Structure formats: structure tokens, C-alpha cells
Amino acid sequence: MSENVSATSPGARSRLPLLGDCANCFGLCCVALPFAASADFAVNKNAGKPCTNLQSDFRCGIHTRLRTSGFRGCTVYDCFGAGQKVSQHTFAGRDWRQAPETAQQMFDVFPVVRQLQELLWYLSEALTLPAARPVHAEAGRLLEETERLTLLDADGLATVDVAAHRQKVNTVLLRTSELVRAKAGRKTKDRRGADLMGARLKGADLRGANLRGAYLIAADLTGADLRMADLIGADLRDANLAGADLTESIFLTQPQLNAARGNGATRLPSSLTRPAHW
To answer: Which residues form the signal peptide (predicted)?
Structure first.
């Protein structure tokens, strides 16, 4: 679905397996997932039903005009590489059209792998952060365990307790956050899960802020300094990031950026790409 299926920066290239590769996927996000008519989608679609825009080659027929056609939500989504892993590894290149008996199981395990792939993204990032060196050993162990889970067969994936595994990973991610944010050398208000919808934070010094799960929908963050801020799970839909500095922010993902608004002056981590619609 995402407009950002490739990346050019060195940091992004190092995590290419954790980015969606539509050319090697059977359009799973366009079939397995449901969506409702809204500002993000022009129509309703049930889970397991192919989007009417999905072509026979599993490509999107309106990919270059998704936003103008009312499918903004598609340009925000990224599967973190789950689509190609399920298509090419779990089901060994057998697609749900040629092998319809695999369809339901394929659609069921796709969200499981997608969640695990997102955890791989966070763990991979933790391993690149010098301040998090005290937890690198545990992060590495969990990364290997998570990768092993993604490589299970379809029956094995159906039994994975993603919530329990996420809880184990989150313990390391929380400690990583503490270690990195401490580098900012300043005490900040804990804004974890805070309701900051529409907040006026223009030019705000948010270095080292804990913004995990914060609601920043339509917040004005123009020119804000978000270096070393923890943005895991923060809702950035329509947040204005024009001129903001996100270079050292942690646990920021491409879907979060895709949902926000920014410009050429927005500074990004090297692992992420500037959304095409900015």
C-alpha cells in the first residue's frame, strides 16, 4: 500500500528487509485487512476481500493517485516486510489465487508476521544506539528470537502469542528509551500517552521527551526539536512537522511519518525516507 516501498539513504538500506516490497508480495495488505469508508478510505472493504483496485499482477491500479482517489490510508501503511516474507517464505511463492486453499491461512498469519516485523524494526534500532549498549545483548537475543518466530510455518505462526512476546520486547525498549533520553541531560515532563491533539508546540524543545503513545493528532510541531524523544506508538496523524528536527528521535517509523505533514526542511533519521506527499 505504502508510497514508500524503497529507500535511498544508507540507514534505510540497512533495514530494507523491514520495509514493504510490493513487487514480491501477493497484495496481502490489499486483501487481508479490512477498512471502512472514511477520510482515509473511499469505500468499505471486509477482511479477506480483495480491494477493487487490486490488479491481476497484485499491483494497485491507482497507486500513483491513491490520495486524490480517496485512499490516503493506503499511502500511510507499511507492513515492515511482512508481505514479502509471508508470500515468499511462509507460502513459498504460492499465491492465494493459484492456490485458493491457502488464502484464509495466508490472510490470518499476515497480521501476526506484520506485528513481529515491527518489533524487529524497534530491536534493530536499539542495537544501533550507543547509549543502549547495556541492553544490546538482550536486544540481540530477542531479535534472534523474533526473527525465528517470523520464519515458522503457517501452523506455527497461528500459535504465536504476539502480546506476550511484545511484552518481553517492550521491557528492553523501555530501558533503551531511558538510556537514550538520559543523554539529553535534562528533566522533561512525562508525556507518555498524553492527549496533545491539536497542541501548539511550535518551536518546542522536546529533546529527550517521553512521547510514547502520545496523541499528537494535528499538533503544531513546526520547528520543534525532537532529538532523543521517544516516539514509539505516537499518533502523528496530520501533525505539522515542517522544519522539525527528528534526526535523533527514537522508535519513529515510516507509517508515522506518512501520516504526518512535513516539508523539505524537516530533518529525519537516516533510516527513514521523506514521504512523497510532503
So the answer is: none
For residues 176 and 129, is the Cβ–Cβ distance under 8 A? yes
pLDDT tens by residue, 162-195:
999 999 999 999 999 999 999 998 888 899 999 9
Share of the chain above pLDDT 90, in %: 90
Nearest of 239, 202, 233, 235 to residue 219 by alpha carbon: 239
pLDDT, tens digit, 9 for 90 and up, residues 124-166: 999 999 999 999 999 999 999 999 999 999 999 999 999 999 9
DSSP designation for 200? B
Grid coordinates belonging to 124: 534493530
Q: Which residues contact 71 (CB under 8 A, 6 or more apart)?
A: 40, 41, 42, 53, 62
Residues 6+ apart with CB under 8 A from 64: none
**Cβ count near 38 (within 10 Å):** 12
Q: Name the CA dihedral angle for 187, 259, 108, 18, rounded to a multiple of 10 degrees.
A: -70
What does residue 3 show for φ and ψ, rounded to 5 degrees?
Answer: -75, -20
Rounded-to-integer distance, Cα 278 and Cα 262, Å: 5
Task: Give Cα 202 distance to the centre of its chain.
Answer: 25
Rounded to whole angstroms, the Cα distance separating 137 from 125 reads 13
Phi, psi of 50 (to 5 degrees): -65, 140
